[in-house]
Amino acid sequence: MSGPGRPLAHWQHRLAERGIDSQLWLLVPALVFVVALFLYPFFYGLTLSFQPTNGGPFSDYARFFSDSYERGTIWITLRIALPAALLNVLAAVPIAYRMRGRFRGKRLVTTLLVVPITLGTVLTAQGLLNFLGPTGWFNRILLASNLVDEPVRLTHNYWGVFFSLVITGFPFAFLLVLSYLSGIDPTLERAAATLGADWRRRFTRITLPLLMPGLATTFCLTFVLAFSVFPSAVLVGNPAGETRVISLAAYQAAYEQYDYPYASAIAMIMGFVELVIIAVVLAARSRFYTGSTGGKG
Amino acid sequence: MATTTQAPPARPPATSTDRRRRIVARPAAWIVWGVVIFFFLNLLGVVASVLVSSFGQRWFDTWLPDGYTTSWYARAWDEFALLQVIVVTLEVSVLVVGLSLVIGVPAAYALARRSFPGKRLIFLVFLLPILMPPITYGIPLATVLYKFGLAGHMSGVVLANLVPSVPFVILTMTPFIEQIDPRIESAARMCGAGLRTVFLRILTPLLVPGILASAILVLVRTVGMFELTFLTAGPDSQTLVVALYYSMSASGIRAQQSVDAMAVIYTSMMLVLLIVALRYVNPTQLVARVKDEPEH
Questions:
Q1: d(CA B138, CA A38)
Q2: Considering only CB atoms, which chain A residues are within 8 Å of B29?
Q3: ipTM greater than 0.95
Q4: CATH tag, B75-292
Q5: Least CB-CB distance to A175: which of B1, B162, B283?
Q6: Which residue segment(s) compose the domain that A151 sits in?
Q7: Which residues contact B21 (CB under 8 A, 6 or more apart)?
Q8: What is the pLDDT of residues A224-277, one digit of tens each?
């Protein structure tokens, strides 16, 4: 890129001073890619959702909210995703707090925890059907130990989906919380101990406030994962009723009714609900201390 | 939880942070470890029940199957045309890894080294596909790909899988690029090397660890990616995990055990990849990169 003419060189020079020069061409392939495959489809879907096959621009949205079977999917999804995300994050905190130091086998524990995440929800669903089913090992153990009289129904209903979200979501939340915790400078807590704070005060006054922003982010990411639950809702849930989640409604509109505008409208509603929850959590998060935590993170 | 967090060390500590805890733990510690062990036992049960079932002859209302056989694997191999499925899975993964590296590494370089107007915005745009769940943007994406006739075969699957992969390469590569001394590049430039020579002869050799790490991470994610592949794949471009989903949701037609056999094949493939991956990256990196989260 060399401009021989004087005015051109001058023009290039001024841009280069502001940080724009020929090296930025390196960004172009990635930008073209993200615009073509991410931003364009998104805005295409957004405009498509306002161009329904029949009716005015908002009629697909009206259709979704007027039909209680469709509208109910939002509530169904929230009822699965919010408790699952909350449980995953809350259970992760004490366990990560305990494991934040170094100990033998820490790498083994973290490695084992990565396994369910990499296996994904489809395999988890298959395993849960076998394991939690009426003749599965879990029910056998309960029956053999006389805790229950007849097999507990844990698959093809709410609980199947819930457990699949815990099995994949808890390790995810745990690993995130653990890395946030190890980003907090341990000397802060030791200083508090020197000043006479017991563990409870050290945890509530030092560690927890520093951890809160991280917990909020973890909750958001875990919630978003749980909110878009799809394969396990079909496989271990009851996709016609109790666990007809919103992603399933969008999928059915697109691939069973071939109504792309309506499917786009549902996808937009889904994205909007997610954004609302995330915005609420992040607004709460901004009330906490968000500065340096002094550690390596 | 613990009544005192740091018990007196049993032996002189190696460093100040590496103190050993007391062996006899407090009740709170027992509860925490109990929960962890309970979780792992259930996880083991989930994985093992698939494994045992895939080798079992008949398994109805007993603790273990009546007899053992490997014939389900042969049946699954034929019934689900697994050879073709595995070939497709490998082709898709190799294409996605290759393309996302070619697109992502130069962009990561520009983002790591340069500052320019609008950099934060561009960074945020690259982050969005990772932060958003695939099914949310997957449906509009699949609609667009179908509109242009790209979905329904392998090109659509590859394109859709690139969407989270390219940003992932950028995020993984950025710290690797930042740790290379810029003076090395300046020296090469002074000796007359152009941008391309600097890239191929100086940066690429130095970046091999980073490239390996991000390649293996993208590979693991692509093989395990269900939603995007599911939405864009046609009958002859299914990857293993999508084929597994279809065989499961059509259960009743096939014997449960041959579906289990297929699940075991998928699991062992993922575990091999995972073992390879963990040689290059630490477990947390497989999940997310906390450090690069944007400040909201």
A1: 9
A2: 98
A3: no
A4: 1.10.3720.10
A5: B283
A6: 78-242+274-285
A7: A101, A103, B6, B7
A8: 888 888 888 888 888 888 889 999 999 999 888 888 889 999 999 998 998 899
